[in-house]
Amino acid sequence: MTSGGIRVERLNAWFGDKQALRDISINIEGYHTTAIIGPSGCGKSTFVRCLNRMHEVNPLARAGGRVFIGNTDIYANGTTPVEVRRRVGMVFQKPNPFPTMSIYDNVAAGLKLNGWERGRRLGEVVEQALRRAALWDEVKDDLKQKSGASLSGGQQQRLCIARALAVEPEVLLMDEPASALDPMATAKIEDLLFELKQSVTVVIVTHNMQQAARVAEFTGFFLMGELVEFDRTEQMFTRPRDKRTEDYVTGRFG
Amino acid sequence: MKTPVNAIRCTGWAGKNGIGIARRLRNNIAMGAMVMSAVLVIAPLIMILTYLAARGAGSLNWAFFTHIPTPVGENGGGMANAIAGSGMILLIASAIGMPIGIGSGVFLAEYGRNRLGDILRFTADVLNGVPSIVLGVTAYSLLVVTQKHFSAFAGGVALAIMMIPTISRSTEEMLLMVPHSIREAALGLGIPRWRTIVSVVLPAAKSGIVTGMMLGFSRVAGETAPLLFTAFGNQFWNWSPTRPTAALPLQIYTYAISPFDEWHRMAWAGALVLILLIVGTVAVVRLVTARSLYKVMV
Amino acid sequence: MPKFQFAEPRALGPVAVAAPRRVVGPRSWRSADPGFRAAMAACSFSLLVTAILIFWELLSQSKLSLHQFGFRFFAGMNWDPVSGDFGALPFIYGTLVSSLIALVVAVPLALGSALFITELCPKRLKGTVSFLLELLAAIPSVIYGLWGIFVLSPLLRQYAEPWLETYFGWTGLFEGPPFGIGMFAAGMILAIMIIPIIGSVAREVVLAVPMSQREGVLALGATRWEVVCLAVLRNARTGILGAVILGLGRALGETMAVTMVIGNTPQVSKSLLAPGYSLASVIANEFSEATGDLYLSALFEIGLVLFLITLIVNGLARVLVWSVTRGMPARANV
Predict the structure, then answer these.
(1) CATH code for the domain of C229
(2) How far apart are alpha carbons C287 and B194 in whole angstroms?
(3) Neighbouring chains of A at 3+ CB pairs within 8 Å?
(4) C163 touches B at CB < 8 Å
(5) Side-chain half-sphere of C40: how many Cα atoms within 13 Å?
(6) pLDDT digits 0-9 by tens, A229-252
(7) What CATH number should be reported for the domain whose range is A6-249?
(8) Counted domains in chain C
(9) Is B236 exposed, middle or buried (0-12, 13-18, 19+ CB in 10 A)?
(10) DSSP letter string over A141-192?
(11) Which of A218, B82, C302, C331 is 20 to 30 A from B39 (CA-CA)?
(12) Which residues of chain A make contact with B195, given a CB cutoff of 8 A?
């Protein structure tokens, strides 16, 4: 496994008494894009949210197991969720820029609100993050005047990506980032993923198999809380090993 | 739906020809009664406000706002000390009540979506219903007796106790209106919970919280009973928070029940000033947002 | 198999990337989260502490009077500071009767105007009318009292009370000289003051009745009044009761306006036109001049009684209203 990858060992997750994930073990390649697919309710969102310990934000939620980002087990006793989330970024299904902040402040939020002090360099970091999110050219003139919420849906999502990238995470989790967007905006986001994986490990949840095929080198198929199959995307979609995978990929259910 | 059908039958369904006369009459009478009620309720409001304006406006002059009361029998004088005193007492009340009220609202919204929160919310509502005279008497017992003198501070505390439940409820409601996705976004960036609340959630709810504060303020600005035995009133200037202080509502009360015409005149003027302040605040809040006074008075 | 367009394969193995920059330095700060939560909790708990403190203080200051009089306190008709005999019955009577008068007058008017706003009022007027109704709540008690003394009282004395005595004197409720101040005047002022509260809560409760209920009755061919009767009032019954009790709670504790028009005479009389006294008023009037520990303690005991009564009444009202609107009331932006 290359550096920057994620190694998951026997991850289990519950919502109250209901078990959402069963014994998930998976090795996610560093600096590659991995797609997580499966029908609704299969646990793919839950899985990804366990990778940055966002799952436990819900008061009824619990998770157990080991998840290694690099060499650190993020579920180890001494590790706080706050530290984990600085190394593992997240982009959500519905774009959620901070409504009271300008574009500049949105991107800088992860740094400023965590005590980043180097004032002048902040501008450079913001610019670089916006470039990586393919948004720089569209907003560079209105950085501090326009509020984050005044952009279009696709732009807002790229703003959220920029915001997540500004803190230089090792991993970027994306939970169906384009499902609320139109095809043009979706295409823009898929394009920027090609550049992104040079520097960040990307894990993307998607219900759209075409999308998984376009952007991801690896794919994991989840069903009812279990990891059914994990392989190179091309392999999984053309010669799936498990019957359930084949049924899903050929559209027999889901 | 069995019950309504039976009920309609009992009211005299006229059969196939449509609504019977009895039912139509009942309907019209009822509609008329509703309109009548609305009119009868608004009428006193108009009466009071116009009477206030009429009786009070004539006595509002420069002297009113700059002079303290003159001895009985002499003309002139004003309520300047009462206005200033109210200002001081309300300042103390706000300094104590607003931070605690907002803090309480934050707790209930962010950490209180559980049984404990329900108990605290219930307590806040109950505290809201405690008669203000009881609060005044308690503040007397706890602060005035122990410090051996009446004080603006004691009055401020009594008013703060009245302010806290309303501001808490209002803040909580505004915070709950901030979409959860914003909190998630901040937490996902590795921003600690407290920083999320302070720098992301609170600013998003800012305008609502401010209007809640204004409404809470205007509610206690007119209160008299809590000040009767705490601030006590003062015929002269007083700038010390640890001494008896005049307050506008107190002065209005003292003058109103006095036998002197001159003082009655001043009471009306004072009432006009007070009502302009309070009604003005409420009207501004209502115009700028659509927020109703409901949360404050209940 | 469906056709897919695949990403270009890349070789695995070490990829040349810049070492990830630890943006936020190796600062291992102890999180301020628990401290912040504790501070906010303290603010919230201060409410509980205050409520308990009020109860405790009232109780301890009333001890003297409680020991001296026991339950006789509530049955005693005699309030005599000079001889040291204190009986609170006149005040209990005055509070209850004035509040009752207020309810009798206020409830129909409040409900009627609430229904007017929700059912009848044209959309353009809704905002203005509801705003005007709420302004009534914003007027301070002392101003109501001022208006009561100088405007309402003369009106009652010259017109209303003689009229009541002439036509309803046979009931025994309207006898004696019409002073213009007294139980009836207090009841009237209280009515005006509690209308906005009852009306607002009633409005919230009525708004919480789902449209499907109204539509169901309407589809059976009911008139508008019947829709109100059968769908709205029937469903909102509990909540409206809660609104009424909330209004009662407010009337029981109202001080300044009542003090200014009730006449401040500790007596129990059948006639509503006679002056009376209420629990809150006696405290307001006599507390500053109370000499002697027993006197003061008796007044504290009255405060304690007032506290407990309003606690129970308001608690009951809350439970009723919450059961209908489920905690957070619907926002009445009408």
Answers:
(1) 1.10.3720.10
(2) 46
(3) B, C
(4) no
(5) 25
(6) 999 999 999 999 999 999 998 888
(7) 3.40.50.300
(8) 1
(9) exposed
(10) TSTTTSBGGGS-HHHHHHHHHHHHHHT--SEEEEESTTTTS-HHHHHHHHHH
(11) C331
(12) 113-114
